[in-house]
Amino acid sequence: MKKVICLFICLLCLCHAQQPAAQKPEPKKFPEEVLQTPPVVFAIGHDYQIMVPVVTETLLSCEINGKTYYDANNGVICTATPVRRITVPQAELDAAKEYTLCCRVVTKRGEYYTKTEPLQKKTYKFRPLEKTDNIKIFMLADTHNRVKAPTDAVKYYDKELDLLILNGDISEGLSNYNNILTNYKIAGGITNGEIPVVYSRGNHELRGAMAEQLPLYAPNRDGNLYYTFRVGPIWGIVLDCGEDKDDDHAEYGHTVDCHSFRLKETEYLKNVIANAANEYNTADVKYRLIVSHTPFMHINEKPFDIELDIYREWCKLLRENVKPHLMLCGHFHTIRVVRPGHAWDHLGQPCTVVVGSRPGKTMDEYTGTAIELTEKNATIRFVHNTHKIEGEDVIEFK
Ligand SMILES: [Fe+2]
User: Which tens digits make up the pLDDT trace of 156-201?
Assistant: First the structure.
């Protein structure tokens, strides 16, 4: 019997010796195997929300000048959400001019002893908007899932770009996560996380099963997609008009309540005006912008005829209090500068409105808007992806 047991043990040992040692998987390379796109630095209020889509369960934090900021929810550092958001004070990042993303890929998430790969880091340069003149902005709207053509259009400014504005309908709709990624493919690809970006939702981004989850994947103010922002001498307000037809339109199939949403936004606008001394009336604000996907005005033969009382009130509040320099819009798939009193201005628009996005007939064509701000005026150029200028205008500031 003893001999049998010995033989069995020997066989076991032999088998074990012949098996190759269990290979430990190589850690994922950071950032290329962890981040789906470069990061995007969104301006919200007096903060930046540094956001980036990740491919796997990852702990991501950000170091600025020796201080660490986390993507945490009520004390729990996020590992599962596919887009990470790390909120940092603008003043800190503007002063440091660089930030370091710190990554630990999670290999085992448990209630106890969660395991991660080793810490990896990458530092990104950041160029805050510090100049007060000759500011170069590019606005993209209505890209409708295009990535290359709008990216090529923005290259008109090459390294001189100071601020990128994504002004809605960047995706065709939000029925899947890949459409949400369009924001990051465009903005991450253009900026590499090195200059600020302003984001505003378009009406197409209220459509589809993932639309209700957009605040998880997009910059926002406590869940709200309308907010004020600062970028250097620019103060701006992002207004979100929601959908472009009445809530009971058959197209929406009972899935929207934009009327209540707009009323809440009216209250927010009134609060911003009441707080003007800390918003647009500070000494360092030189330019006041409105960013809204939908221009609340007529276009040619198509009347703008929903929620007229609400939009008339928005126009009055903005015109009489904020006195904006420019309102930047898309939505109409056309390129046009519309001054107050124009035939399209039926509600008393608060300032000159630039409607500036024209997706082409194919996915390879796109025209966006290049804006140069000086203390006297704004030069508007409608720029095709081939860099052909399709229209130009100069708006004098009073
Ligand atoms: Fe639109």
Answer: 999 999 999 999 999 999 999 999 999 999 999 999 999 999 999 9
Q: What is the pLDDT of residue 314?
A: 98
Query: Domain 135-396, CATH 3.10.450.50 — does that match?
Result: no
Please write the tens of the pLDDT for every residue from 91-127: 999 999 999 999 999 999 999 999 999 999 999 999 9
Q: What's the gap in Å between 136 CA and the centre of ligand 1?
A: 24
74 CA → ligand 1 middle, Å: 35
Q: How far apart are the C-alpha atoms of 97 and 93, rounded to whole Å?
A: 6
- CATH (residue range 40-125): 2.60.40
In whole angstroms, give the CA distance from residue 82 to residue 53.
Answer: 6
The domain spans of the chain are: 40-125, 135-396
For residue 32, give the amino acid letter.
E
Quick count: other Cβ atoms within 10 Å of Cβ 393? 16
- Ligand 1 centroid to residue 337 C-alpha, Å: 17
Contacts of residue 315, Cβ cutoff 8 Å, sequence gap at least 6:
296, 347, 348, 349, 350
- pTM: predicted TM-score of the whole model, two decimal places: 0.93
- Rounded to whole angstroms, how far apart are CA atoms 81 and 85? 10
